[in-house]
Amino acid sequence: MSAPLYNADILRLAASIPYHEQLAAPMATAERRSPICGSRVTVDVDVDDDGRVSAVGLLVRACALGQASSSLLAANVLGRTPEELAAARDALTGWLAGGGDPPDWPGLDIFTPALAHSARHPSIRLAFEAAAEAAETATRARTDG
Fold first, then answer.
1. Residue 109: pLDDT band by 50, 70, 90 thresholds?
2. What pLDDT was estimated at residue 1?
3. Taking the CA of residue 91 as centre, how many other CA atoms within 13 Å lie in the half-sphere pointing to its CB?
4. What phi-psi label fits residue 53: left (phi over 0), alpha (psi between -120 and 50 degrees) or beta?
5. Of the candidates 35, 13, 39, 22, which has an alpha carbon nearest to the alpha carbon of residue 134?
6. DSSP, res 104
7. What is the pLDDT of residues 24-41, one digit of tens each?
8. Which of 18, 28, 32, 38 could pair covalently with 138 via S-S, beta carbons 3.0-4.6 A apart?
9. What CA–CA distance (Å, rounded) separates 17 from 10?
10. SS3 121
């Protein structure tokens, strides 16, 4: 028997997104939208001198899966490099497409019931895609500027 797509753990995460307000003056911002359901996640970041995320803010207008994924991203993003975020994004994308084990990011295995629902995958990826882009942009601006 398969696990329900929307369960208490998903709903709990969706209702408790850390850093759920945008930053006042972020170093970089990236937004991602799901064309399938209209979910949207905007991620603001600041990075320190080492290129690690030092502050994050999110604006999440997404389904419960997108909200839960945003919650997991936000809870574990501080201190991460753009390379780490790109690796997490790519691993999540691969896993959702049927590529092996869950990514090495705390809690993402909660989306195992969604593996069979490819229409839900874009919402789950939104926060990771936006965070990876924002961190890369912020780091590039810091080194170029």
1. very high
2. 40
3. 14
4. beta
5. 22
6. S
7. 999 999 999 998 889 999
8. 28
9. 11
10. helix
What pLDDT, on a 0 to 100 scale, did the predictor assign at position 3?
Answer: 66
- Which residue in this structure is represented by tokens 């991460």? 80
| Cα angle value 140/20/119 (rounded, 5°) | 85
Q: Which amino acid, residue 118? A: S
Amino acid identity of 63? C
Task: Pick the more confident residue, 8 or 2.
Answer: 8
pLDDT mean across residues, the chain: 94
Q: To the nearest 5 percent, what fractions of the chain are helix, strand and coil? A: 50, 15, 35
Work out whether strand 53-61 and strand 28-33 pair parallel, antiparallel, or are unpaired: unpaired
Print the SS3 string covering 4-63. Answer: CCCCHHHHHHHCCCCCCCCCCCCCEEEEEECCCCCCEEEEEEEECCCCCEEEEEEEEECC
